[in-house]
Amino acid sequence: MTDNDSLQSYLRSVAVTAGRGERVPTVRQLMRDFSLSQQNVERVLKSLKEEGLVAAYVGRGTFFTGGEGVQATEINAADDRAQKSVILLRRSANNLRGRVVLEELQHRLSDAGHVTLEVGYSNPEHAREVLQTLPRFDACIVQNSFDTMPIDMIAAIRRKTDTVIVDGAWLVGTDIDAVGFEWGQSVEAAVERLVASGHDRIHYVTTASFFLANEMGQHRWRILRSRPELSSVLQPEIRVGRLPPKDYEEMAVSAFRAALKDAPAARKPALLIWGIDDGVKLRRLLANVGLTVPSDLSVVLLGRTDLDPEAGGFFHVFGYSAADQINGVYERLIERWRKPEDPFGLRLLPMTERPGPSLDEQGPPQ
């Protein structure tokens, strides 16, 4: 399918459900979103005008006709009703995990006959501006990484669609669905493994930025620290101010090194760290400050077990898989379409583990 065909298919799908008088996105926006020239966008719009699906008014813009022209086209009405339009709303600066999930979701939705449009935004205000230019669509998958979605941003999305799926753990009690992962179970599993392997001082590095999944991980860490047998082993969490991916590894290693200066001596120290995108880089940064893994320090990551760059072919990882995330979001979307009256809620993914030589599982030195 060419880019022209993708644009035409998307606008035709939206035209079937759009209300009469809803504005068609501007030529400039369609050029940007579909990577098309002005001439190609105008050619597609001309075709839709001839079919009666849109109408242009000088000085006002182009608007959907409310489906009045559908009967005059060669489009099969039943097929159009089956075809859905899905907006993939993402932060402009997304990470590897985000790109993998969105790309695979696009493939699955396209293979199922649905039309997708990926829309990037830089902040909530920009998201609201972008949404105002779009017609109604059948669903929105939101991938906002770790940032807060203000109430007015959620309201702007809900004005455009009845089906909203958040890619990531999200607060319950809203009329949206979410599929994600909480880090508490992985924190506890990693601590149990490290303690059983004889580690007598364990540090935990994560982000200071608030989001639900990470807060649950920190909450579990603090509960574990309150146990008498672990109070001297588990150190206060080290919180890095900046989220991945920019400079996060450097900041995490720097913060960890600073914490080591005040930490009690240990025969067998370990580091549990969240948010690493580049395992090879992390290993190099630790070596640069004189820490060889695992002879000087065992390291366990909290991350995605099926994204090779995170583990870097070396690190032991507790977390979840991107494949499970993709399946979870896609299946929840299809279920929501089939059963629109089902209760909304958060679905958590199962924990997985990826072994790696960064974890020294021998007992403490004698």
TrEMBL record:
Residue ranges of every copy of the HTH gntR-type domain listed in the record: 21-63
Transcription keyword on record: yes
Keywords: DNA-binding, Transcription, Transcription regulation
InterPro entries found in the cross-reference section: Peripla_BP_I, Tscrpt_reg_HTH_GntR, WH-like_DNA-bd_sf, WH_DNA-bd_sf
GO molecular function: DNA binding; DNA-binding transcription factor activity
Region Disordered, annotated ranges: 347-366
A Pfam family of this chain: GntR
Keyword ATP-binding recorded: no
Record's protein name: GntR family transcriptional regulator
Species name: Rhizobium rhizogenes (Agrobacterium rhizogenes)
